[in-house]
Amino acid sequence: YASLHNNVRVVANFPDWQSLDDLPSVVRDGKTCVIAGALTRDRGISQVFEALGILKQRDVEVPLALAGPSISEDYLRSLWDEASRLGISRQVHYHGILSKEKSLLLQNQASIGLATYLPLQNSMSGLPNKLMECMALGLPVICSDFPVYRQVAGETGAAILVDPTKPEQIADAIESLINNPSLARQMGEAGRDAVRSRFNWQTESRKLLDLYHQLVGPPVQA
Asked: Three-class SS of residue 92?
């Protein structure tokens, strides 16, 4: 858009962290992973399943909570078939399509957020809401090593960056967080602090209001 006009504002769809303060406190088990959102192939769910299979071979059994609409029933069935083939069916729990409130509750109860999107153009250039939600909830995150993810989650110390096409890297990252609860806690706190100080809707909305004021003038005082 900058090529079309010199007055451009980029307003990110970051979470409203104040709305998360009312969530109940929970005792996390230190190992449950979560993926909440549209269940599509670009989310790298198959690679996560393979990572869980690798961990099971290491005698590390990791639960995975899934929620969200699927691209098709056939895709869901293919996921369950894959989980069965890898011997992780009992570890994968699908909660269906949840409301925004229930989705946040589910993520809040987990211990590790996963945002291992595959390297497709849309995923590499955008920033997923679920990554920001996990950070806002104080979850350590394992995410794809893309520049925009690195800038927001990696450089703030909130995430372990991995090649999403390599299940071994995902497995190693999950195991490192399980084995180092203090590290997981530090990463979760770093993510929460980053959202509260910088990556939140309160900050982004001011950019939008500033642009409105430039275009139409300041609000009329009653």
From this structure: strand
CB 115 within 8 A of CB 128: yes
The CB density around residue 88, as the number of other CB atoms within 10 Å, is: 22
CA distance 58 to 154: 27
Calculate the CA dihedral of residues 34, 131, 47, 31 and round it to 10 degrees: -40
Question: Higher model confidence: residue 141 or residue 221?
Answer: 141
In Å, how far from its chain's centre is CA 144? 10
Q: Which DSSP letter does residue 17 get?
A: G
Label residues 57-78 b or e (16+ Cβ within 10 Å = b). eeeeebbbbbbbebeeeeeeee
Separation between Cα atoms, residue 200 and residue 119, nearest integer Å = 25
- Reported residue count of the chain is 222
In the prediction, which pLDDT does 21 show? Answer: 73
Alpha-carbon distance of 3 to 77, in angstroms, equals 45
pTM, to two decimals: 0.88
Q: What does the pLDDT look like over 31-68, one tens digit per residue? A: 999 999 999 999 999 999 999 999 999 999 999 999 99
Kindly give the residue spans of alpha helices, DSSP state H, lying in the chain.
45-57, 73-86, 100-109, 121-125, 129-136, 147-149, 167-179, 181-197, 201-216
Terminal-to-terminal C-alpha distance of the chain: 35
